[in-house]
C-alpha cells in the first residue's frame, strides 16, 4: 500500500494557535519535510513533541531535487508530513511540486488545517470578504511590479498580497498610482504576534505612513475595483486621460488609471486615445 502525504499548517506567530493534530502528526510521521529544520526544532520543542521519523529539509532551493525522493518514500508506504516556516504549505511556500507529483502517482494527500496569514488578514481588514484573490508577492523590480498591478487594476474582488517590509512603501506607492490613491486597503503586520498591527486607510495615506519604515511580516489587503455605474464614451475616456497627462502623469500610467477607475480593460482606453490622436491628425 502507498503512504500518505500530510500538509500541515503551522502557527504564523503565536505557537498556541497550533492545531491539536499537528503534535500527533509531528510525533508519528515517518518522514518530516521541513522548510527550515531549525524552525521545526523550535516548533517541536514549543509543542513538547519528539519526532520519531526522519527529518529532511525541503525548501525552494532543493524542492525540485528532493521531490522524487519523497514521492518514492510515499510510494513505499511512508507517512510524509510537510511543514513550512509558517502557515499552509503550497501557499507562497514549498509544497506544490510534491502535491502534484503525489497526485500523479495516485498517492493520498490530506491536510492538517491551520493558521493562514491570507485568511487572517482578509478577515481583519474590514474590506469585502465574499470574493477575493490571492496574488502572493509582487515582483521586486519597479517596472515589473507596475505591470503586474495594471493586470488587476479592474479586478472587482478584494486583493491579498504578501510583501517584505523594506519594499512596502514602494509597493503601496505603486498601488496608489495604479489603483488610485483613494482605494481602501489594510496593511496587516506581525499577525498573531506581540506587536500585531492592522493599519487601514486609503492607499495614498498608507504609502505616506510606510515611507517612515515598517518592520515585521506584512500582508496587504486591497479593496477591489469599484463597480462601474456609468457608461463612459470614448470622448470622455480620452478627456480623463488628457486631464491626468496635464497633471504630469505619463500617458501609459494615465491610461491605466482611467481604465481602473472606469472598470474597463486598459486596451479599450488605449484604443480610444489612439483613435482620437489619429482623428486629430486626419483633420484638415
Which properties best describe this structure?
284 residues, 10 strands, alpha/beta, five-stranded mixed beta sheet
Radius of gyration: 23 Å
Assign a percent range to the helix content.
40-55%
Please tally the helical runs, counting DSSP H or I stretches of 4 or more residues. 11
Sheet with most strands: strand arrangement: 3-2-4-1-5
The secondary-structure class comes to alpha/beta
The H/E string reads EHEHEHEHEHEHEHEEHEHHH
- As a percent range, the share of strand residues is 15-25%
Biggest pleated sheet: 5 strands, parallel
Give the overall silhouette. Answer: elongated
- The end-to-end span amounts to 82 Å
Please tell me the overall pLDDT. 92
| Low-pLDDT residue intervals, each spanning 5 or more residues | none
For the secondary structure, the number of strands is 10
Characterise this structure.
With 284 residues, the chain is α/β, with parallel strands linked by helices. The chain has eleven helices and ten strands. It has a five-stranded parallel beta sheet, with helices on both faces. Helix 6 links the parallel strand 6 and strand 7 (158-163). Helix 6 (142-151) crosses helix 7 (168-179). The chain is elongated, with a radius of gyration of 23 Å.
Task: Give a brief description.
By secondary structure, the protein is of the alpha/beta class. The chain is built from 11 helices and 10 strands.
Record the SSE blueprint.
Blueprint lengths: L3 E5 L11 H9 L2 E4 L2 H10 L7 E4 L5 H13 L3 E5 L12 H9 L3 E5 L4 H9 L6 E6 L4 H10 L6 E6 L4 H12 L4 E6 L7 E6 H8 L7 E5 L11 H13 L4 H12 L3 H17 L2
Parallel strand pairs: 1-4, 1-5, 2-3, 2-4, 6-7
Antiparallel strand pairs: 7-10, 8-9, 8-10
Amino acid at each position: 500500500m502507498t503512504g500518505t502525504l500530510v500538509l500541515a499548517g503551522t502557527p504564523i506567530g503565536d505557537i498556541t494557535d497550533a492545531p491539536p493534530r499537528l503534535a500527533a502528526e509531528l510525533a508519528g510521521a515517518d518522514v518530516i519535510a521541513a522548510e527550515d529544520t531549525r524552525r521545526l526544532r523550535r516548533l517541536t520543542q514549543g509543542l513538547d513533541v519528539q519526532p520519531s521519523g526522519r527529518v529532511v529539509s525541503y525548501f525552494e532551493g532543493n524542492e525540485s531535487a528532493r521531490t522524487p525522493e519523497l514521492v518514492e518514500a510515499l510510494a513505499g508506504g511512508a507517512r510524509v508530513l510537510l511543514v513550512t516556516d509558517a502557515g499552509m504549505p503550497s501557499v507562497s511556500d514549498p509544497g506544490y511540486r510534491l502535491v502534484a507529483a503525489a497526485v500523479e502517482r495516485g498517492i493520498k494527500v490530506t491536510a492538517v488545517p491551520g493558521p493562514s496569514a491570507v485568511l487572517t488578514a482578509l478577515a481583519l481588514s474590514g474590506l469585502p470578504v465574499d470574493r477575493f484573490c490571492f496574488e502572493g508577492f509582487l515582483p521586486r523590480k519597479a517596472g515589473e511590479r507596475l505591470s503586474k498591478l495594471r493586470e488587476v487594476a479592474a479586478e472587482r474582488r478584494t486583493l491579498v498580497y504578501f510583501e517584505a517590509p523594506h519594499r512596502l512603501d514602494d509597493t503601496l506607492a505603486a498601488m496608489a498610482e495604479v489603483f488610485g490613491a483613494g482605494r481602501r486597503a489594510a496593511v496587516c503586520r506581525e499577525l498573531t504576534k506581540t506587536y500585531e498591527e492592522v493599519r487601514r486607510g486609503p492607499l495614498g495615506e498608507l504609502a505616506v505612513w510606510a515611507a517612515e519604515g515598517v518592520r515585521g511580516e506584512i500582508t496587504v489587503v486591497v479593496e477591489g475595483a469599484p463597480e462601474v455605474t456609468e457608461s463612459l464614451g470614448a470622448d470622455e475616456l480620452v478627456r480623463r486621460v488628457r486631464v491626468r497627462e496635464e497633471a504630469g502623469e505619463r500617458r501609459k500610467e494615465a491610461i491605466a488609471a482611467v481604465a481602473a477607475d472606469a472598470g474597463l480593460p486598459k486596451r479599450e482606453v488605449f484604443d480610444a486615445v489612439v483613435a482620437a490622436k489619429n482623428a486629430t491628425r486626419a483633420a484638415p
